[in-house]
Amino acid sequence: MAIDYKASTINDLTQLYRSGEATPSQVLEAYIKRIERDEARVGAFITTTFDEAREIAHRLDKRLADAPETIDWDKETLFGVPVALKDNMCTQGVKTTCASKILGDFRPPYDGTAPGRLRAHGAVFVGKTNLDEFAMGSSCENSAFMRTTNPHNADYVPGGSSGGSAASVAADFAVAALGSDTGGSIRQPASFCGVVGMKPTYGLVSRYGLVAFASSLDQIGPFTRTAYDAALVLAAMCGQKDPRDSTSLEDPFGKTFNKRGFAALDQGFVKAMQAKTGQEIYKGARVGVFKELMGQGNDPQVDKAVSASIERMRELGATITEVSLPNAKYALAVYYILATAEASANLARFDGVRYGLRDPKAKDLLNMYLETRHEGFGPEVKRRIMLGTYALSSGYYDAYYKKAQQVRRLIASDFERVFAECDFLVSPTSPIPPFKFDEKTGDPLTMYLADVATIPANLAGIPGISLPCGTTDNDLPIGLQMLGPQLSDAHLLQYAHGLQQSAD
Questions:
Q1: Which residue, among 464, 503, 467, 5, has the nearest Cα to 194 in the 3D structure?
Q2: What is the pTM of this model?
Q3: Which of these ranges, 76-80, 144-148, 352-356, has the smallest mean pLDDT?
Q4: 10-240+260-330+404-503, which class in CATH?
């Protein structure tokens, strides 16, 4: 019997498995059937992993049938859940391309920490998703291999750089997906595709196995349909120091960091979160409206949808205050100095020597470097490497890189000041709704401006989440962004969950 588990949540699937109404293999085949039917239109995946997924699902079926008592549902929270992975996360034996010719045939010998932890919680990986090359872009138009479309309207972009992951959830190709967020690469495509996307506190999720773009900004996070599912996925990845990533936090919710009483994002918190109503969650909440990101150059439909959500928070019992972060206006300039500088250093390793593409026609070592990188990198990656190299060069380092780091500190201080008065901030995720293909590719600066609302959170290392809050006149999604202080991830998800509950 064909079963269509369209728009299922993690909790839905768990209940089906526990009641015996479905098996992981039945659910997987339903998702594979949908991918095979619609992937030509959407283009979410660079690589599908159906054979491996079927093997894992079959093993889960056997456990469910022969030894259900061995399944710890409180720990194996993603048991039999189809999950997609952005193709810049290492997966053992499976191509990891970063949507770049220079890594077109690279197969890592290991799993990254985040995919490995999801696998340990029972997730079934259906494939590796498309992205802007090396996660550099805001529309998913910079991939070397393919174009991902917005599942709501194929004439429009899905956002970037994690466009394939966002589209895979929006198109019901997966229940959840992982993306990476350096300047908004989870939240902006989540907004464009009408799903939930979260960038955690920097250091909460290990970056081991994530191909680096800008190491002080990159963070792995989930795409799901609900904030509750996002909490389940994030809880499976976080909370443990990874000795292979020196930036991952040691005991993040313990006494060292827990200055404001933030709760650990664990299964206990997630279960408690599900039991609360929107009124219970928002009663007494202090919500700050990010003044600089409202009404100044935004699409009027975006402001209208976000304002309606803010009013809904007020009705649920929150106190709404307009707050100003004066240094946020420098965030875009700071980001495109720091991120490109770090990209210049990180991408120096792709030289044709150890792995990846190598030009076989090169006459000597220098020409091999030059021709390999010329052929292997796309235009946007080359642009950012050159910008970053310039910012780090002798005579310009102090004027650009050092100054940008100083302003970054001022932006973080603005957030600290505001969070002394507010529990979280709200703004549009993107100042504009999804745009059409080729509309902004000829003007990189206009494309960069699409990330103006998301970049400040990466510079400050704070968590941010985007959730659907409305649609445009032509039925394209609009996203609401919530930003919280460092390590407030659990509470931020709770606020997002409460708003979704009340909206439903």
A1: 467
A2: 0.96
A3: 352-356
A4: alpha beta
